[in-house]
């Protein structure tokens, strides 16, 4: 009886772990650009599919990458390469054949459960610069509600490190005391029914 209960517990745990992971599919072709970015959670898998021939997918040694991966050059149209990301942090990648200017992006890996919360859904627009930044960050929003917008910053572990209310179309945020690294910046209304999350790099 105890063995049966233990088996059932392990089975449920295993199925639950599988259900929480996601697979993301990216088309990979010459000229796709330099902003093929994704934010995923630990344990998620990215699959690149060649929609034109002769490419590779590899972490960019000139950029930031917490993991090492390399598909090698695959010639055939329709080739695929998959990689499961296990470590928190940013992974700059590119095509070794065509170069970063033509084919590149960043896979940002955050803690499990971060992206499944409702406040990371239903995006609208805002902009921020400079990104990367060192001393201050300017945040621009197209409109402001009467009670302002909530501005929050999270590290890659999902811990909130900054929170304030935006009451103007342009706000300047002091960031000199933040540690260098990758952050998620979220702007939402007072009820958090509408929000947008973007990646920010502190130098």
UniProtKB/TrEMBL annotation:
Signal peptide start and end residues: 1-19
Organism, per UniProt? Answer: Bizionia paragorgiae
Cited Gene3D superfamilies = Cupredoxins - blue copper proteins
Residue limits of the Blue (type 1) copper domain? 37-109
Q: Where is the Secretion system C-terminal sorting domain?
A: 129-199
Keywords of the record:
Copper, Metal-binding, Signal
Q: Report a single Gene Ontology molecular function.
A: copper ion binding
Q: What is this protein called?
A: Por secretion system C-terminal sorting domain-containing protein
Q: Which Pfam families match?
A: Copper-bind (PF00127), Por_Secre_tail (PF18962)
């Amino acid at each position: 009886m105890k063995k049966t209960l233990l088996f059932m517990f392990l089975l449920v745990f295993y199925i639950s772990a599988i259900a929480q992971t996601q697979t993301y599919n990216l088309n990979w072709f010459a000229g796709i650009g330099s902003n093929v970015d994704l934010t995923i959670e630990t344990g998620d898998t990215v699959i690149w599919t060649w929609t034109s021939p002769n490419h590779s997918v590899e972490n960019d040694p000139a950029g930031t990458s917490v993991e090492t991966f390399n598909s090698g050059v695959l010639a055939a149209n329709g080739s695929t390469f998959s990689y499961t990301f296990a470590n928190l942090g940013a992974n700059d990648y590119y095509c070794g054949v065509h170069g970063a200017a033509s084919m590149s992006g960043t896979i940002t890996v955050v803690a499990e459960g971060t992206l499944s919360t409702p406040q990371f859904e239903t995006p609208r627009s805002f902009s921020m610069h400079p990104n990367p930044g060192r001393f201050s960050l300017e945040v621009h929003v197209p409109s402001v509600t009467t009670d302002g917008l909530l501005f929050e910053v999270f590290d890659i572990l999902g811990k909130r490190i900054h929170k304030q209310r935006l009451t103007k179309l342009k706000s300047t945020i002091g960031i000199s005391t933040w540690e260098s690294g990758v952050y998620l910046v979220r702007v939402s209304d007072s009820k958090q029914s509408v929000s947008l999350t973007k990646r920010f790099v502190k130098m």
